[in-house]
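(Structure overview)
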Amino acid sequence: MDTLFERDVKCNTGMTLTGGRILGPDGIFLDADLHMDAGIVTETAPIAPQVINVSDCLILPGIVDAHGDGHEHHLMPRVGAEFPEWVALRNVDRELIANGITTAYLAQSFSWEGEMRGAEAARKVIEGLRDLHPSPAADIRIQLRYETFYLDGANQLLAWLEDGTVQYVVFNNHIPQFEQLRDKPEHVARWAATIGLEPDDFWSLMAKTVEDGMGVLDAIKRLSDAMRRLGVPFGSHDDPDPETRRRYDAVGATIAEFPLTRAAAQTARDLGNPIMMGAPNALRGLSTSGNVSARELIEANLCDALVSDYYYPSLLHAPFKLAQDGVCDLASAWGLVSSGPAKAVGLHDRGALAPGLRGDVVVVRQDDLGRPHIVASVVFGQLAFIDRSIAGAIACHVS
């Protein structure tokens, strides 16, 4: 569907990446050149292309980040220290592209909590993204993490869905998790501070929210009906158990983001729902919250995509670490950050290097220890980032 963030991209120059090993759509690495023309991968070389020698490098599909809230750290790097959206988002764009993320959904909270997770904060991020000029290097989109008890926000979300501003939604209900933190006052205090509240005020706000929450099911149905009609992908976040996953699947919320247990993930697989997990979890080998390990789910074929969650660099490093540790081969691991998330959110024009698809590419060189280093990122056939190690390897052929 149309979006308010349509990019004014004019790509008249063809490009060829030569000398590297390409990860093909069949999962096999090939010693071949990659050609792009007018932003699209082609079978044959374009006329008078820009040629970049990427010898000893891997040529990989660009990373698709379906859920990342790292932009929050740019907006407020310290509690109480807020920065303008145009400053934060411009630097988010630079961080994305330097980490090989060519498509990114900013996972913006939309919650009864208010402040950085409230309606005004969401509006500011949306307007900040709209005002980015020139156009961001990465294809940046908006995902809203809608807290189901935020009934006052339902109409605004519907409006953003209708005009194409919001292109992916997940339902959250973190109230049960907050309740479990009552015996951990330090955690509550830290969380409350991020939204400018004292702990007692936070508990009072949550109690009132629950008391006023009689229309939650109706709001979920209204929003779900609209998203199905508009073709907007949607799912749920932090499913704790199979019953929760089944309830969301029943209304069309088919994407399972961060299931908290293996049982919830298995139910998603049985229902044919795409399963997304955090790349930081996969890279570190465990969840920071004590939930199910992403590696355990990957080994059990219960994970279709990895997302950056709170740390953008994890999407580059997790696949190589998974391959190094023998969890899966590199081609399969890279699919978790490219074709897997693209398919999950319905972006069928990217995620693989095949003729007719977008020229979204990451060029990676590994050091002696096998660690990856981004040397170039290409978005829609245009060079968006280049490392000085290959900056002198560019030539323009004139016909």
About this structure: The mean pLDDT is 90.
